[in-house]
């Protein structure tokens, strides 16, 4: 199943979408505020989000999993799926590989497949939270922070191996998510575990190529339910500082305690030049890994407001590694990802619409009512015409989900691959 | 300070707002979906939200309070303030009195002031969480659920007195919010406290005029920090059933534990014909009493989606008693209320936009992606032109906040009343 | 591996435990308070908790599972494991079966195995949250509350089948835990789903033998992450009332939103005669299913305080169906269950120690400080001598965990069953 | 009202408490573990907790306050109240002053009163969350982090003034709790606010005498309900590092989001040598400021377990500034403080009982079950005999609360001071 630019272009034409007139309205309205809709369209068109290789099949919970037909059975097929997303949106131009689930057997062949879809290799992900068959050391009681040296070393070696594969593919960064922690009070000594983790991370950092970055993820709980070694941004930030300049914190939207003000964390990290990566999803209760924007779209906008501000004012941060990190328990994974991409770009466009100059003045005057009006004015604006313009500009489908369904993509995939395949991943 | 229809009409004319063209766009888009924007405009124009008499001055926290100038010093002045809100929006046509803070000295005079502003008397509120000077019994350890009979009886009598005042004013309902609970384990026997509360509520219910309704509010914590007798909707619903047909549950958006699915509670109560009242505010952590829509506007929309569905499908419920129950710690209280009214009407209009027929079909087919698309399509629509049309239709200001500021209302109030007045309330 | 009374008795004798002197101290202290330690010893000795058939192997999370050696591979072996627990403690004299994981092939043989261990068959559990191979209808979008009639009927039939198996085994109750809900707003109509659920539960209730009870479990989230049909005790209570007298609510300690006051829910349900079953575990974040008492032992005590009060004052409730519902991700499952049993009996003994008469007086006098002192005095007492006496009295091991380790039970099981078996379950 | 050592000694004698025999049992049991009960008794006897000057009267909530009779009306009377606590317990030998509530008029006289009660002056507290009459700049929109320079400078000057007063009294540290934050998204620029706060803190730090320490408190919300500048330990730690060596983080138990693992934060800060102060209280929902140990005594024990470990292994931390920071909404404030002191010392004694050597071995072997057993063995031990021995040793009452009631302290205070006094504070 390959979706060519021609097919999309034809579909766009026949659709007769009226977004252009709506966009003109928006331009007129914004003209008063010294905000350029054309600039926003360009920025939205340029925005690229990586898709992780494990997110193309059905996800599940500890209570089970309901399979979805046509799941990719190989890394090539996963790249093909991302290729479909990218063709439809021109926003999904990168893959984030997860090792050992997606070790490429033939590097050159894989690079060619990726290139054929114009997909880059973004951050590499290691996995030290599961034991693989024949593993020489166990991660049951931890990996980089394990009290046993053999497990720590084994996990360090695995990360170095991931870097090696990434180098061959052209990736430039490593994401370390550490499930290490404890299920019970007393199980681990907090200080020892933290010290071991810091030492292990430094060992990996020392093996990092000079043009690579390392992202340290944090998470308060799950799969451990009493404590997690890197439980919050503060711990990650402390560890990144200990490692060195090219170590950064990675924020995953689902990895916070109830009611956390995430946008403030984002602002703090960007202020300090230590925000490196960003994982999108949405949640109501915990790390629910739902479609981006499905539950708290205003929080997503507020976070993007800080990201946009930081990208404009804090040049000391690297280009952020954006990735969708969701689980598709109920929906067609590709449709789910299309909805996530849409929500991301909407929040981004709305954040770009914020009248930063007026906001600054209102903040200086403590005009709280006006501050709120300025943010909400941007948020309440229907920016979907902006996304449509951006997509048409870059050769994508004006309405990607509609095209996906019209083209019968899922049925074609099931026909090709069968209904019983199961993608590697969670 | 009185804002006349003429002044508003003049301002509207000179403003040259372009909303009409935007509204036409919306009409065209919706025409395809068998949704009538004109109907929505009418419904939005008809929607009335009560303003509580205690919410016109600055609020505070246990850490203190920062006064706001020009606060109303009497019930008459409070009605004048609501009159300003109603003149500007035609959506705030009711007051909800709080006794004993706002006992009218001259019923007839007060009714005349209210009538002059076209303000009705909505639900009456009793207060049994504070001791008044000279009180014959103490509420320190509870009121309707107190273990001591004298305190229970005193609280029952107070509620009957509130009903009496309400009858004279033309109100038709009583809201009972009970702070009763315990700060420490063991302090109270849960079963005894619940039984006492049920008996006391029945005594009040028996004193209710035949054309009155009683609303029972629930709240998990604060001002008691271990337990609250009516801690959740389940307890309120159980008590309302025990009292009788004209007893209903009242939902306050801020009165829930973290992550509660409030829209589901709303749907359940409407399904059972037991939703009576609704208090608007917003919150991030607890009962924060912030401006409506300031934190979680999508949740507000989802709740309105259930309210609209219920109003259309569950005739066994009464007309809901809507009220804004927010605290104004930082903003000009009147501006804060204008922002709340705006957010309420936006969520209401968006909910009215939901294509219920298509949604039903998609739900039947378990097309989860489409279900989400339908809701989000309504939510992402910029419905502010609808509100503007509704307001112009009913003689209100197209842009109420702008008019409020242009007319220099706050300055005028400070001039009239001084900067040191303090409204009764929290 | 069979642990005989003789072996235990011998071990007890050689141990020379000094608990008798400690118990005498306790008796002297309590003599002043009109509390009989001997009575408490008897009650503790009589207390029986069911072990679910799925909890004898290693548990896992969506991120994976670390196997434990010697897991039972059949229902017979599961009963053998519970037999070990019961021999060591004389407190685990019941099994709670989960169908279809543990459908007995030969009813008579299974009953004999159970009888040989003196294990009764407590509540039966149905499973409608996973699709089984060859299923005629899917539970992907729900079971009893599914919008499709075929899935609802299939789930009803499954429950009736579970009752049938239970009847043959001698069970007298059915536990229904419903995972039904939605991952996304809009996915399901709340009112329709609730109505369907109520109707389905009534169909099952109508198929219940006259001497059976039905327990309706509730849970706020997981495996659905937006809404769950039976989200709280209020919904379960409402449904139980709709079904009839022999339908009750079941409380699982892990199934609550953050900060919920569970003991108050227990008190309310007992007051209304509607508490039927109780699932023990502990948690810090969500439904973590940790060892009972591992995180919040004081909350467990407060809950037991209400349970004891209810058992003494609310005869309208049935004998509660107690069960441990924990997951063993890290520990030896049998050791984990031994620790859970210990924590349950400690909390029970402490609750029995509460001086109810003095507490009632202190509550009547609003002597909050004394109320707390009374509860904490019971809680701070080291009641382990009581448990030891109760166990010795009933022929169990004074120190079960010590005996388990001394006898090398796990090694023996691994020897018998191998290290690669995997018990059915989560 | 003065409680002399003689009176206490007499009461102790007549009481005939049987704790000595219980203590002997404990000694025998612990002898096997290489833990010395005598050492623990000594450490418990030496432990001193400061009482804040604002905590001797009734507290309240935003919904009101119920006065308590006999509240201290002056700083002298507050010291007298702490004197009573210290005489009864010998554990409350310090006061923590809050300025401007408790500016001493006559330094020398105040020092004499304190000395007469053997009370030291612990950390000084500034207050920049309320405007005082005649204030030259407003804290309504923040103090050290205010966007306006005049408010920032005013707040800096206030802190320097507090240091000055503290120097005269003999205090050696300053606690800065900053309420600064925002009630609404957009109200403040996170980066600017953080930068301003850092600069202001540095200004204060530069004014710190060389032998002084500065403690930076954090809190996620309240009195601001959208964001707080110093929202978590990570932010406080970052700011303390920016200020310098003598700046430390202060942990208040109530200042965390739901489900936070506080003991891990404590361990991290001690590991890094940056834990300076500690505020005790307990809570179920938010910053409830309840009696220490009233809700989560096991969590308190786990925290003390880390504190004890840190005190033994991390000499780079200063002697911690311990303080009770609770609000007395329901109980007699002095009785409430006595209960808090009891709970603190119980947790401390239990933590000292932990067999650290065995725990280390069990952790090394990943014997999770044994790790839990070791902690719980200490926690389940009734250590009240240890406290009694420690108190008798130091000349305090064996049972302070009993003595307080027997001596009729509250009645005497009401007689002396009247029933209408109101202590300054919240």
Automatic annotation (TrEMBL), chains A, B, C, D:
Q: According to the lineage, what is the superkingdom?
A: Bacteria
Asked whether the UniProt record includes Methyltransferase among its keywords, one would answer no
- UniProt-listed SUPFAM superfamilies: Xylose isomerase-like
Molecular function (GO) terms listed? isomerase activity
Which keywords has UniProt assigned to this entry?
A: Isomerase, Manganese, Metal-binding
Write down the InterPro entries for this protein, in alphabetical order. Answer: L-rhamnose_isomerase (IPR050337), Xyl_isomerase-like_sf (IPR036237)
The name of this protein is: Sugar isomerase
Report the source organism: Autumnicola edwardsiae
Lineage, opening ranks? Bacteria, Pseudomonadati, Bacteroidota, Flavobacteriia, Flavobacteriales
